[in-house]
Amino acid sequence: MSSESAGEGGGEGSVYVHDVNEREQERLRWLNQLLNQRCLAEMKLAAGERVVDFGSGLAELARRMAGVTGRPVVGIERDGRQIEAAMRLAKADGEGGLVDLRQGDVCDPPLRAEEWGAFDVAHARFVLEHVPDPSSVIAAMVRAVHRGGRIFLCDDDHDLMRFWPDCPGGETLWRAYTRTYSDVGNDPYVGRKLATLLALAGARPFRVQWIFFGGCAAEAHFEVLIDNLIGVIDSARERILANGSMSPSTYEDARSALAQWRRIPDAALWYAVPFAEGIKP
Q1: In sequence order, what are the residues at sequence separation of 6 or more whose Cβ sits closer than 8 angstroms to the Cβ of residue 124?
Q2: What is the pLDDT of residue 16?
Q3: In the chain, which residues have pLDDT < 70?
Q4: pLDDT tens sequence across 167-178
Q5: Can you give the C-alpha Rg of the chain in angstroms?
Q6: 3-class secondary structure per residue, 117-141
Q7: All domains of the chain, ordered by start, with CATH?
Q8: Spatial contact of 7 and 57, defined as CB atoms under 8 Å apart
Q9: Secondary structure of residue 15 in the 3-state scheme
Q10: How do beta strands 119-125 and 145-154 pair?
Q11: Quick one: pLDDT at residue 33?
């Protein structure tokens, strides 16, 4: 249920299905607050490690990684607006020195000659679903780390979303949203393929895991979770209407039904983000 590192730093020919306006950036900050600690726990970073973050977005996870390693994280981000927003947020928190953000293509990242093969860790979250050739991104990640270095991938499989009790409006919206990825040549189910993609890029798949991203109505973060879900779908509204999946009226009806569903006392949203670790042999 993306985007951020949420990764918006796509490669050439990639189509990011969301907007990058202030409202979208605020949604991405919510997403980070829900996911970052869980992702950090899976990575088990060590002090002194050098990290490069592919598709760094607002760089909030990059800053958290730098806080663990004690070294600035190099972040690759395609959109200059995201970099400006990321640096504004980092400086406001007194953390401008934790990141080295560079504008560029994650398939051909702007790393210096001496940096290739020098990183301990390469990371990408919510990037592969936005590029037509995920293998090219992972190949660059493998090239960026030294032998024995780790590659972390975290990306969506949009078939994992479940509402209970049933929410026909939410399910209809989610299917229509998922179709917008296929429409532009991206893969909405790339998460299930992470181990294979690591192997194809020359890394040894070492471990796979779920990052749970759900909740029920009684949990404090449930409202934020549903706000994020609605925000994700709304950010692709024009694409959904353009491809004929829904009419404006059916879209609004389904959206209203989802907003009402969230008030059910036993409402539960089940979702998990696939996570994989590879090692460069």
Answers
A1: 5, 7, 53, 54, 55, 106, 137, 138, 141, 152, 153, 154, 155
A2: 45
A3: 1-31
A4: 999 999 999 999
A5: 18
A6: CCEEEEEEECCHHHCCCHHHHHHHH
A7: 22-279 (3.40.50.150)
A8: yes
A9: coil
A10: parallel
A11: 75
